[in-house]
């Protein structure tokens, strides 16, 4: 058994995260990072505006990580020093539950960030919007979520309060920076197929405003680790049944490019002020 085999039930995922954090510290020369940022589909152009990284590391060089599996994601992680002396760890991709690598792999980046010293994580994603007023390219704060994956990153008798899983003061901070920001409930389906119109109607009945294939499991793991969580969705397309046209992943990437300036400025100012 490899020490980095997250699939093996005998592996302690926190030990793998600690090993990954040690590699980050060695490669960056930084004892700790303060804020982690996970880039979702369409967010890479925005994240490029955060600042110049002083270190860029291939995912495959870090224990427990794999190459990017989705177009529009980057298979590297970057370490960016800020003017205020803090340091941001930027993940260019995430592991999605639909990739079949298991829940531990999905939340490994979150646990690595916590092991590296991060007290705050910003989770971004590209998603389908259920409100017609949210045009493609609209960023929306996640106020809460509904996890429809039928799984959890928590193992055993681990009970974590998720009342404020998306930290209210961070949402308030984001709205101070951009008062036009709306917020909504994010619904995660397993994927990788898009939701059917009936499933979208179900999500709306349940109280959802956004639908996608990521984020909720990472947010749960972050709260378990004691991290503050800010979730931001980029509405890249109307959800199935709301739009008259078929869904296409290329639309997700294009919407990210179109919204890069607004989302990049928003990310940069939020990270500066956290």
UniProtKB/TrEMBL annotation:
An annotated Gene Ontology molecular function: purine-nucleoside phosphorylase activity
Catalytic activity: a purine 2'-deoxy-D-ribonucleoside + phosphate = a purine nucleobase + 2-deoxy-alpha-D-ribose 1-phosphate
UniProt: phosphate binding residues: 41, 73, 94-96, 126, 214
Pathway: Purine metabolism; purine nucleoside salvage
GO-annotated biological processes: nucleoside metabolic process
Superkingdom of origin organism: Bacteria
Any one Gene Ontology cellular component term annotated for this protein: cytoplasm
Alphabetical keyword list: Glycosyltransferase, Transferase
Enzyme class: transferase
Nucleoside phosphorylase domain residues: 35-272
EC number, UniProt record: 2.4.2.1
Family: Belongs to the PNP/MTAP phosphorylase family.
Name used for this protein in its record: Purine nucleoside phosphorylase
Organism, scientific name: Ornithinimicrobium humiphilum
């Amino acid at each position: 058994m490899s020490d980095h085999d997250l699939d093996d039930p005998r592996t302690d995922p926190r030990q793998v995260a600690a090993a990954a954090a040690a590699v980050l510290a060695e490669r960056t020369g930084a004892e700790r990072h303060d804020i982690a940022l996970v880039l979702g589909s369409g967010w890479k152009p925005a994240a490029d505006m955060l600042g110049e990284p002083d270190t860029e590391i291939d995912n495959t060089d870090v224990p427990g990580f794999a190459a990017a599996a989705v177009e529009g994601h980057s298979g590297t992680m970057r370490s960016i020093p800020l003017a205020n002396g803090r340091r941001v760890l930027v993940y260019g991709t995430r592991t999605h539950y639909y990739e079949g690598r298991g829940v531990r792999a999905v939340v490994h980046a979150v646990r690595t960030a916590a092991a590296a010293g991060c007290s705050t994580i910003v989770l971004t994603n590209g998603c389908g919007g259920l409100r017609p007023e949210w045009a493609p390219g609209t960023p929306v704060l996640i106020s809460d979520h509904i996890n429809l994956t039928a799984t959890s990153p928590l193992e055993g008798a681990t009970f974590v309060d998720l009342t404020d899983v998306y930290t209210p003061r961070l949402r308030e901070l984001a709205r101070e920076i951009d008062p036009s920001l709306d917020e909504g409930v994010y619904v995660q389906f397993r994927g990788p197929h898009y939701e059917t119109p009936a499933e979208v109607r179900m999500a709306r009945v349940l109280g959802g405003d956004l639908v996608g294939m990521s984020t909720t499991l990472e947010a749960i793991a972050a709260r378990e680790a004691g991290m503050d969580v800010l979730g931001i969705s980029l509405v890249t397309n109307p959800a199935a049944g709301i739009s008259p046209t078929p869904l296409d992943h290329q639309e997700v990437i294009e919407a990210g490019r179109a919204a890069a300036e607004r989302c990049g400025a928003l990310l940069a100012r939020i990270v500066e002020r956290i």
